[in-house]
Amino acid sequence: AIDGLLEGRAYTLMLKGKALNVSADYNAQSEKLLSKAVKLDPELVEAWNQLGEVYWKKGDVSAAHTCFSGALGHCKNKSSLQNLSMVLRQLHTTSPDEHTQNVMDSVRQAKLAVQMDVRDGRSWKRWTPLLLVIQICISIEPRFLSMKKTTWKPWRVLHGPQPLTRLGWNLNNGSSNS
């Protein structure tokens, strides 16, 4: 019975924190409510995701990374994957190799988000720019070459085995490949 009360209280705090988090600006009260929610119910993934977004707005990218990673530790979900993909590219790094690794991890997270729900526009919105980054990086950095073939797979789910460049060209011109 006590566990149910704590979960209910945590959910209520999460909803209040989420409501305060709708603006584009950081909200300290939202951070406070969401922090309490995850302390009361550490498995409340939506609270972790919201708290990560609050930290991100605050400019604390490292704390946001911890929240999204923590949420994924409880449950694999596309929202955490989408946000983690973006945060990874913004993390402070001390070397070009570390930055390269973060970009590669970012690509993997975005790809997983698309694979979870190929009809989710938010996942595609995070995934598509990475395809361009990969194409550029392949020409600059040989380590990215191994990623080229694996990045095409989600596109094949929707459009078949067409080359990525042709698909991108047709999508950009508004024509269909079907």
Structural class based on helices, strands and sheet pairing: mainly alpha
Mean pLDDT: 79
* Low-pLDDT windows of residues: 151-178
Total domain modules = 2
Rg estimate, integer Å: 19 Å
Number of strands: 0
Largest sheet: none
Helix content: over 70%
Based on CA inertia axes, which overall geometry fits?
Answer: globular
Count of helices? 10
Beta-strand residue percentage: under 5%
Question: H/E element string?
Answer: HHHHHHHHHH
Span of the ends, CA to CA: 55 Å
Description:
The protein has 2 domains: 1-75, Serine Threonine Protein Phosphatase 5, Tetratricopeptide repeat (Alpha Horseshoe), CATH 1.25.40.10; 80-163. The longest helix has 21 residues, at 96-116. Helices cover 76% and strands 0% of the residues. It is built from 10 helices and no strands. The N and C termini lie far apart (55 Å). With 178 residues, it is mainly α. Helix 1 packs parallel to helix 3 (45-58).
